[in-house]
Amino acid sequence: MPQSDMLKFVTVGRAMPEKRTADDRRDDFGEIYREYAAEKAAEQSSRCSQCGVPYCQTHCPLHNNIPDWLRLTAEGRLEEAYEISQATNTFPEICGRICPQDRLCEGNCVIEQSGHGTVTIGAVEKYITDTAWENGWVKPVVPARERPESVGVIGAGPGGLAAADMLRRAGCKVTVYDRHDRAGGLLTYGIPGFKLEKDVVMRRNDQLVDGGVELRLNCNVGEDITFQQIRETHDAVLIATGVYKSRDLGGPGAGLSGIVRAIDYLTASNRIGFGDSVAEYDSGELNAAGKRVVVIGGGDTAMDCVRTAIRQGATSVKCLYRRDRANMPGSQREVENAEEEGVEFVWLAAPKGFTGDDGVAGVRVARMRLGAPDASGRQVPEEIDGADYTEDAELVIKALGFEPEELPALWNEPALEVTRWGTIRADFRTKQTSIPGVYAVGDIVRGASLVVWAIRDGRDAAEQILDRFDAASAAVAAE
């Protein structure tokens, strides 16, 4: 296809894959967007303007070669499109599903800025890789040669697995340690199936295992094995634990039963999806069925909780957020999906306490207004005196974000330096911590962030570790 045939954004409108109706999708945890047909994927890819300075690529944390694989898709060269996509991204089919494209690649598309509607980059990325799996183009991890070095990765989330993939392809022996019984971290237990069906994650896990990566699951570092033992076992160690300590709420009644953490609630729901037995779900503690549900928070985790509660059969679902719609951190696309499914958003509302005797019966809500901007430039929410009211609820889910666990104390490793926020202190370029040969990536360094940034960090750390191994080998050879 000549490049001139790519500039179809003037004559071809933007079209997302068909979205299942709200009534249909409320009844299950299947993904809500259907797959593109080949012709539609090619048509939407052909809308790309092939601009000389591709802002979509610049604003992608992985700097994916987006214009290249869009053009290849438009030309029907899907296997080549997949190879280009996979070259910079360990999990393109996952990013195509869960990345906030409206804030990254699609939000910075040149034709979006000119008013023609962005290229549907995420949907095409998902289509390319799903097609690659269907046709057997996704190859097993097969190193060109085996290396003598061994790397221990702590944490089987997206950052740790991205690093493990690259290190194993380079021939290193890789062991991944994780406290859960399945690898994937938040991809497995944090993100609901309606955004990311779990077989998509499991087949990547299987690919790593088939390629020789060892997964040590149900292994809690600091309890089942010491951090020092891991360091003694491997030539390098990568910490990619993520952040799982939930921010809490105070106020009267904060200890009542029926007030739960988002991570516990989402994990239980995902386990049920796997067919596991979950006592807290069966007892109703982590089950929204038949209950009035209030979710507190305005990020993507809150969106996951409200949409999960709808699918579990809640009587009503309300989301309280202390700022307005324009200032919420969660994806606007997710808010729209939630509203379609029956979620009610209560803007400029903050919890002051909780009512109830044996269990929570309501949330005491303060009405807010936005005041002067703070040092970050965001307007500060201020309480409106005398405007309190009570929101009825039998289940309250706290989705207020996550903080790092105190790893130096948990692992009995005081030499592991942390920042004043509790995140691990690591060099921006090398990813190395205060301990030689120990690296750290992802949310445990950045704070709670995006999956795509964890993948980027994991890949960068793998390169740094390999460079260190090569330099050591060269030094030995020179002696």
From TrEMBL:
GO molecular function (one): oxidoreductase activity
Organism: Halovulum marinum
Protein name: NAD(P)-binding protein
UniProt cross-references to NCBIfam families, sorted A to Z: gltD_gamma_fam
Record's signal peptide: none
Residue ranges occupied by any Dihydroprymidine dehydrogenase domain in the UniProt entry: 26-136
Keyword flag Nucleotide-binding: no
Record key words, sorted: 4Fe-4S, Iron, Iron-sulfur, Metal-binding, Oxidoreductase
PANTHER family: GLUTAMATE SYNTHASE [NADPH] SMALL CHAIN, GLUTAMATE SYNTHASE [NADPH] SMALL CHAIN-RELATED
Domain of life of the source: Bacteria
FAD/NAD(P)-binding domain residues: 151-458
Statement: the UniProt record of this protein carries the keyword Metal-binding: yes
SUPFAM superfamilies in alphabetical order: alpha-helical ferredoxin, Nucleotide-binding domain
Native organism taxonomy: Bacteria, Pseudomonadati, Pseudomonadota, Alphaproteobacteria, Rhodobacterales
